[in-house]
Automatic annotation (TrEMBL):
<dbReference type="Pfam" id="PF00875">
    <property type="entry name" value="DNA_photolyase"/>
</dbReference>
<dbReference type="GO" id="GO:0043153">
    <property type="term" value="P:entrainment of circadian clock by photoperiod"/>
</dbReference>
<feature type="domain" description="Photolyase/cryptochrome alpha/beta">
    <location>
        <begin position="13"/>
        <end position="148"/>
    </location>
</feature>
<dbReference type="InterPro" id="IPR036134">
    <property type="entry name" value="Crypto/Photolyase_FAD-like_sf"/>
</dbReference>
<dbReference type="InterPro" id="IPR005101">
    <property type="entry name" value="Cryptochr/Photolyase_FAD-bd"/>
</dbReference>
<dbReference type="InterPro" id="IPR036155">
    <property type="entry name" value="Crypto/Photolyase_N_sf"/>
</dbReference>
<feature type="compositionally biased region" description="Basic and acidic residues">
    <location>
        <begin position="519"/>
        <end position="531"/>
    </location>
</feature>
<feature type="site" description="Electron transfer via tryptophanyl radical">
    <location>
        <position position="427"/>
    </location>
</feature>
<feature type="site" description="Electron transfer via tryptophanyl radical">
    <location>
        <position position="404"/>
    </location>
</feature>
<keyword id="KW-0274">FAD</keyword>
<keyword id="KW-0285">Flavoprotein</keyword>
<dbReference type="InterPro" id="IPR002081">
    <property type="entry name" value="Cryptochrome/DNA_photolyase_1"/>
</dbReference>
<dbReference type="GO" id="GO:0003904">
    <property type="term" value="F:deoxyribodipyrimidine photo-lyase activity"/>
</dbReference>
<feature type="binding site">
    <location>
        <begin position="417"/>
        <end position="419"/>
    </location>
    <ligand>
        <name>FAD</name>
    </ligand>
</feature>
<feature type="region of interest" description="Disordered">
    <location>
        <begin position="518"/>
        <end position="556"/>
    </location>
</feature>
<dbReference type="GO" id="GO:0071949">
    <property type="term" value="F:FAD binding"/>
</dbReference>
<dbReference type="GO" id="GO:0003677">
    <property type="term" value="F:DNA binding"/>
</dbReference>
Length: 556
């Protein structure tokens, strides 16, 4: 370590900014504070990222998601080097790695972005780090910048504005919007500028800390078939924001999530900013104000949309989901992401069939649209929200009757935009375990997409073994005559599976199961609507949810 970087004055502040999420230099209050406290004493600052193998093993992190993270880390290092600094990347348990670095560098202060959702891994990690820091005489400071506003019982926080009671937070989007409107008139704080090169203490030319380097991509990350829908990093996040939002004011102002297309096979019909928001490459406040600026510049002839379906609405859904996760874990630690003891989840007696779960994960269900969605997930780490809705419904209440927890775990490992709060909220919603109770409205794995993509182009791309089928049979190959199957080179049960369930039968059977589950747990209801659902379920058949606007949508 260069002598120029070591502190020899006991009064010198030696700061470490610990990147966890929040992999950006713009709108990063924790990083800016680290720079501010070192300025007066001309002390150094060490930007650090720690890869904890236990964390990524716990998350069952896919190759695509690991590669996306590495791209984010590499881009962050580049941004810091442009400012005369760099990113120090270490591997190991933070409780072991951090004290070693503090001792080596003489660190006095650590800043980082707060994790407010109460995710079990993060809670245990942060409690441990605070304890170790206290023993080492290191001051740890956390800053809230993962959401538009703080979640907790702090100034400007959502919980603070419901009297500090975590069990009194809004449980519907409309009531959440009402709460937001009461906080500073609904105004969202402006994002902070990225620090300049002049604000960073410059590294010495003879810095020899080369044991802390950006990670090399593992060889399995180079699989050419795994393309990823976007590449990682703050630089590309800001470019994506510019090209999809800023450069298209009329499109931005008229954006309506339910009307976006799930049939695109090349360019997505949404912003695809969600992967960048999930790792904090893009600040939600930066995104919010970019949308606001575009709305102001839009033509007066444009029919401007409003939350919850607008782009602003997608960011509000994100905060709302995070607030619910915060509330659930505050009431019952670690309950968000599981059925047991979750104050927002209805207990449903799901089945457990490893073969059905594997067929769903592998895209081998025999239902081409479902299989196509799962193939896109595996290859690109992303699916349009309607595709996510369909495969989630299919796994749970629609067809396979498997627990939403299993689906959420799989999505957490595969999605580039995997987010602890949003992912679990969506699975609760789609399985009708929480927040949405019209369980009689079931996605058909055939009819829904067939109306939107008559020729089956999406299936032809993602399930190429079916590409030779005529449009008439592309969604239901089991109905095709043997002559048609032979001409297309398809042998059902061999190179493409037969349907693993009879949708018409199991969907009705599952509605009856849901009705019984609802009747058993009426006393524990937290939301309205289940009584109406139970009363009307017997009068409804499996239907197309698109007939009634699905408003549970997050930025995808």
């Amino acid at each position: 370590m260069s002598a120029a970087l070591k502190s020899t004055d006991q009064d010198t502040v030696v700061a470490m900014h610990w990147f966890r999420k929040g992999l950006r230099v713009h709108d990063n209050p924790a990083l800016l504070h680290a720079l501010a406290i070192t300025k007066d004493t001309s002390g150094p600052i060490y930007p650090v990222y720690i890869v904890d193998p236990n964390c990524y093993q716990l998350l069952k992190c896919s190759v695509l998601r690991a590669r996306f993270l590495l791209e984010c880390i590499s881009d962050l290092d580049k941004s810091l080097r442009e400012r005369g600094s760099r990113l120090y990347v270490a591997t190991g348990d933070p409780l072991e790695v951090l004290p070693e670095l503090w001792k080596e560098w003489g660190v006095t202060h650590v800043t980082h972005e707060a994790d407010e959702t109460g995710e079990p891994y993060a809670v245990a990690r942060d409690e441990g780090v605070r304890s170790v820091a206290k023993k080492n005489g290191v001051q740890v400071m956390e800053f809230r910048s993962e959401t538009l506003r703080p979640l907790g019982n702090v100034p400007g926080g959502y919980v603070a504005n419901v009297g500090g009671a975590v069990n009194s937070v809004p449980s519907t989007m409309s009531s959440f919007q009402g709460l937001l409107g009461r906080i500073d008139g609904g105004n969202i704080p402006l994002p902070l500028d990225a620090p300049t090169k002049e604000e960073f203490p410059q590294l010495s030319d003879d810095d020899d800390s080369n044991k802390y380097l950006p990670l090399e991509h593992p060889s399995d990350c180079e699989d050419a078939s795994l393309t990823g829908i976007v590449k990682g990093g703050e630089t590309l996040a800001l470019a994506q924001l510019q090209s999809t939002v800023t450069a298209r004011p009329d499109w931005t102002a008229s954006f309506e999530k339910p009307k976006t297309s799930c049939t695109e096979v090349s360019t997505p019909s949404t912003t695809v900013l969600s992967p960048y928001l999930s790792l904090g490459c893009l600040s939600p406040r930066k995104a919010w104000h970019a949308v606001a600026d575009a709305n102001r510049k839009a033509s007066s002839k444009v029919n401007k949309t409003k939350p919850p379906v607008s782009l602003h609405g997608q960011l509000l859904w994100r905060d709302f989901n995070n607030l619910i996760a915060h509330s659930a874990n505050a009431q019952s630690p670690g309950s968000w992401g599981r059925m047991q003891d979750n104050p927002y989840c209805r207990n449903v007696p799901w089945s457990s069939d490893p073969k059905l779960l594997k067929a769903w994960k592998d895209g081998k269900t025999g239902f081409p649209w479902i299989d196509a969605c799962m193939a896109q997930l595996r290859t690109e780490g992303w699916i349009h929200h309607l595709g996510r809705h369909a495969v989630a419904c299919f796994l749970t209440r629609g067809d396979l009757w498997q627990s939403w927890e299993m689906g959420a775990d799989h999505f957490e490992g595969e999605l580039l935009d995997a987010d602890y709060a949003l992912n679990n909220f969506n699975w609760l919603w789609l399985s009708c375990s929480g927040f949405f109770y019209q369980y009689f409205r079931c996605y058909s794995p055939v009819a829904f997409q067939k109306k939107n993509d008559v020729n089956g182009n999406y299936i032809r791309k993602w399930v190429p073994e079916l590409a030779g089928l005529p449009a008439k049979y592309i969604y239901e190959p089991w109905k095709a005559p043997s002559s048609v199957l032979n001409a297309a080179g398809i042998k059902l049960g061999d190179n493409y599976p037969n349907p693993i369930v009879d949708h018409a039968f199991v969907s009705k059977e599952n509605m009856s199961k849901m009705s019984l589950a609802y009747d058993m747990h009426k006393d524990g209801e937290k939301q309205e609507g289940s009584k109406k659902a139970a009363a009307t379920s017997s009068k409804n058949k499996s239907s197309d949810p698109a007939k009634k606007k699905q408003k549970q949508m997050t930025l995808k």
